[in-house]
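Every protein is a chain of amino acids, and every chain bends into a shape of its own. The protein below has been through that process, and both of its lines are reproduced in full.
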Amino acid sequence: MIREFRPADAPLLFALMRENFPEEEALYGTQPEAYRRIVRRIYRWDARVVLGLARAVGRPIFRFLTVEVDGRMVATTLLSFAERAGYVSMVMVDRPYRGRGYARALLERARGMVERAHRRYIVLDVLRGNTPAIALYESLGYRDLREVGLFSRPLASMVPAGPPAPVSLPRGVRPYDSRDRAPLADVATRTIPPPVAEVLPMPKRALGGSGTLDRILSSESENWVLEREGAPVAWVSVTSSDAMEAAGMAAPIIDESADAAAVDAMLAAAVEWCARRGAVRIVCQVPLHSARSIESLQRAGFVLAHTLRTMYRPVAHA
């Protein structure tokens, strides 16, 4: 039986994550008890009302599907929605239940939801070495779109006795402002190959973070830009949450005109901000076509931990 995820499934969810994604779990270091609090917060009655209204007006936020067998959750798929695509993640099947078609059934149910949401494509990421999963996706019509690197940098954390002290921003670096959204989105769009931009165009709303999301996830975020002659030429965003050992860094946006030393100073401030919040490492997911971002991350001490293949298929609309 395919059904929606329930908060009572949370303990099984964490076990499945460790079993199905050991490489990613080693990087991010999910903290189960903090994660359970987030799950309970997401599934409160008021949050369910908001999610239900979003679906009713044709703007779904996410769907979390599970397969239940004999009263036990044995497989999952999380589906979120971008401008043109539904994005599938957390495709997991408990080991004793593999080979029964549950992952295929969940992916087909997700495809139907994407079609009803009037998106053109369905997209997912898979570790480059996960041969069984790739074979399944190819059998369903998925094909390669891009490669994405998971970059990691260890930290010597500086856990403060009280609230973390503010980070001193380098010259030319300032907090992000909503007026920066359009020019930064233009910078990012210029680096995206046309086939990728067709499926996953740059989401302008992604810049700047979300206070609402931070409250739901018990996280804290900061966003800075590097300015040149009054215009933003680079951007970095970092997030820390007690639900994970690792802090997260969004793929930096860097214009070709940005001074490399100034970009390095901005990233160093971001690294310090994460260390002051007690993170043991930073993880950054960057498309491998973003050469300037990768060069800057490598100068900041990041190394490539894993490579993901982003795969997609068109969704046929009636």
